[in-house]
């Protein structure tokens, strides 16, 4: 008895083709000083409109001869200061440090000037253009409770320290488990030749060049810089 065998055709194995993932969207870093510039332009337009209304047919002459209000020009100076700090911080992007600029605080008209993310943590930065020498004044400590104040020249800037504390708290809530610190970066301040940065109530007080050096020094750790930057950018939109 003979047996005739049949060879079934072999089917080549189907290779698994990976489904390509869409590229991750770029992080919108924002534009340093953008909201301050818009507020300055709004105030200029408002001031001019009031002059034209008050002077009628001579409104154009009144506008040409008038000087900007101090409260209006302050917004322009602030925008320039934020832009200068922003440019220095953006230069650190190639070193793995991501900085978000001009971020709107949810349910508020306030904003955060800069949020820098390094491998070592997050630094919330408020930029100020104050004249004078920054210094810390310590009061009490024996009979009275110990308090620290920040003076810039004769100006009491302690409220700026308190403002950064509030911003640090908000950012900390968005990135649980990541260290978040705060800094005040002064433009045009008069730092002594042998002076150094210092802290007031835990908030760093510094200047742009030193700030960049501090961020480089802190760029060591386990923080996923891009992931944290995306989380913060999603919570605090560009202003």
The DSSP helix count reads: 6
What kind of sheet is the major sheet?
A: 6 strands, mixed
Evaluate the radius of gyration: 27 Å
Order of helices and strands: HHHEEEEEEHEEEHH
- Taken together, the total number of domains comes to 1
What distance separates the N and C termini?
90 Å
Overall outline: globular
Beta fraction of the residues? 15-25%
Roughly how much helix do the residues carry, as a percent range?
A: 25-40%
Which structural class is indicated by helix and strand composition? alpha+beta
Strand order of the largest sheet: 1-2-3-7-9-8
Mean pLDDT: 89
Poorly predicted tracts of residues: 1-8
Number of strands: 9
Describe the protein in words.
This protein has 239 residues and is an alpha+beta fold. It has one domain (34-235). The chain is 37% helix and 21% strand. It contains six helices and nine strands; from the N terminus they run H-H-H-E-E-E-E-E-E-H-E-E-E-H-H. It has helices spanning 34-55, 59-65, 70-90, 158-174, 208-217, 225-235; strands at 98-104, 111-118, 121-128, 134-139, 147-152, 155-156, 180-186, 198-200, 203-206. A hairpin with a 2-residue loop joins strand 8 (198-200) and strand 9 (203-206). The radius of gyration is 27 Å and the shape is globular.
């Amino acid at each position: 008895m003979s047996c005739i065998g049949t060879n079934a055709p072999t089917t080549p194995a189907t290779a698994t083709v990976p489904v390509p993932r869409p590229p991750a969207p770029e992080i919108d870093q924002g534009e340093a000083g953008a909201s301050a510039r818009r507020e300055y332009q709004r105030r200029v337009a408002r001031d001019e409109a009031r002059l034209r209304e008050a002077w009628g047919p001579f409104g154009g002459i009144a506008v040409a001869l008038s000087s900007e209000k101090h409260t209006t020009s302050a917004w322009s100076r602030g925008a320039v200061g934020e832009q200068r700090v922003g440019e220095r911080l953006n230069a650190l992007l190639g070193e793995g440090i991501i900085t978000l600029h001009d971020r709107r605080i949810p349910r508020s008209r306030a904003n955060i000037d800069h949020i820098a993310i390094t491998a070592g943590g997050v630094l919330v930065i408020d930029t100020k253009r104050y004249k004078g020498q920054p210094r810390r004044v310590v009061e009490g400590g024996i009979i009275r409770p110990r308090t620290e104040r920040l003076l810039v020249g004769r100006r009491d800037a302690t409220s700026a320290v308190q403002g950064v504390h509030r911003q640090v708290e908000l950012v900390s809530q968005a990135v649980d488990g990541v260290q978040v610190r705060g800094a005040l970066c002064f433009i045009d301040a008069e730092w002594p030749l042998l002076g150094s940065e210092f802290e007031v109530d835990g908030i760093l007080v510094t200047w742009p060049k030193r700030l960049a050096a501090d961020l480089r020094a802190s760029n060591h750790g386990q923080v996923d810089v891009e992931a944290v930057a995306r989380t913060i950018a999603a919570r605090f939109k560009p202003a």
